[in-house]
Amino acid sequence: MHTPVALLLELGIILAVLSLLGTVARRFALSPVPLYLLAGLALGDGGIAPVPAARDFVDTGAAIGVVLLLLVLGLDFTVREFTVSLRRHRSSAAVDLVLNAAPGAVAGWLLGLDAGGILALAGATYVSSSGIVARLLGDLRRLGNRETPAVLSVLVVEDFVMAAYLPLLAVVASGGTWWQALLAVAAAMTAVAVAITASWRWGHHVSRILSHSDAEQVLLRVLGLTLIVAALAEIIHVSAAVGAFLIGLALTGTAADRARAVLSPLRDLFAAVFFLALGLTVDPGDLLPMLPAAAALAVVTAGSKVAAGWYAARREGAGRRGRLRAGTALIARGEFSVVIIGLAAPAQGRLAALVTAYVMLLAVCGPVVTRLAPTRRAAPARPHRGTGQVTARR
User: Fold this and answer.
1) Among 175, 307, 357, 388, which residue's CB has the most CB atoms within a 10 Å radius?
2) Which residues fall within 8 angstroms of residue 76, CB to CB, at 6 or more apart?
3) What is the pTM of this model?
C-alpha cells in the first residue's frame, strides 16, 4: 500500500501546532478555540503555509468533529429533563429569533440584497455555533452551571429552526416557488418530530443495545449509530448535529457514562480539527473589504445575543453572573453560517465575504468574551445524569 508521505507530514505538523496552541491556551486558562481558528487562517488558501494534501482529511474530520461535540453534549442530559427545559424556553427562543435575525435582515436590506440574500444574512446573524459553544462549556467547566440548560435549550431550538430554515433558503435562493418552499419545510419538520418521538419512547432500548462491557464495542456501536443517524438527518435537510444530539439524549444511565468515557478523547481530537477547518475555508484577502460592515454587524448582534441569553438564563433562575455567562456563551457563530454561505453565496456576490468576515470575528472574539465573563468557583458541581440533584444558584 502506498504511503501518502505529504498527507502524513502535513497532518503531523497540524497536530503538533494544535498541541502547542492548546498548551498556550491552557497556560493562560483560555479556551483554545480562537487559536485553532487563527491557525486555520494561517494554513488555509491565501495563508502563510497552506496544507493542500491534508485538506480533504481535515474537511472530513471537521464533519465528524461537530457530530461528536453534540453527541457528547447530549450524553450529559436526559430526554425528559431536556424537553422540560425546551417547553420552559419557548419564549426565550422567540426572543432569540427576533433580536438576532432582525439585524441581519435590516443589514441585507440596507446593502441592497434580494429576498434570498436578506433571508441568508438573517439566518447567519441568528444562529449561534453549536460546536463552539459546546466546546466552550466543557473547556470552562460550566456544564454544571445553573444557566447551562438555558444555553442548551436556545442552541437546540436554533438547530431545530435551521431544520426548517435551510430547506426554505435553498428554495428561495434557487428561485423556487412558494409551494416548493412549504413542502420542503413540512418534510423537514415532520422528520424532526418523528426523531424526537422515537428518542422519547424507545431511548431505553437504544441504551440496552449499545451497552457492552468492552470499551471497543461501545465506541464502535455508539459512533456507528450516531454517524448513520447524522447522515440520515442531512439527507432530509436536518442538521447532523441535531441527529447526534438526539442519540446522546437517548442514552441513559451506565450506557451514557461508558459512552462519554470512550468518546471524549476522540471528540477532543476531531473538535480541534473542526475549528481548524473553519479557518481553512477563509482567504484572509477576501475579508478586508467587508471588514468594517462585518465588524459593525458583529458588535450589534453580539449585544443582541447577550440580551437573549440573559433573558433565557433568568427564566432558568440564574443570578446576574449566570445570565451574563449565558449571554456571552451564545455570541460565537460558526458551522451553520458556513452552510448558509454555501446555499446563498453563488447568487450573492458580496454576501460570502461579508458573512465570512462576520463569522470569523465572532468565532474568535466570542470565546474570549465568554472566558472574561464573571464567574466564581462552582458550588457544587453538577452530578452525572440520573442522580436527581440540582446545582446551586450562581
Assistant:
1) 357
2) 143, 248, 260, 384, 385
3) 0.70
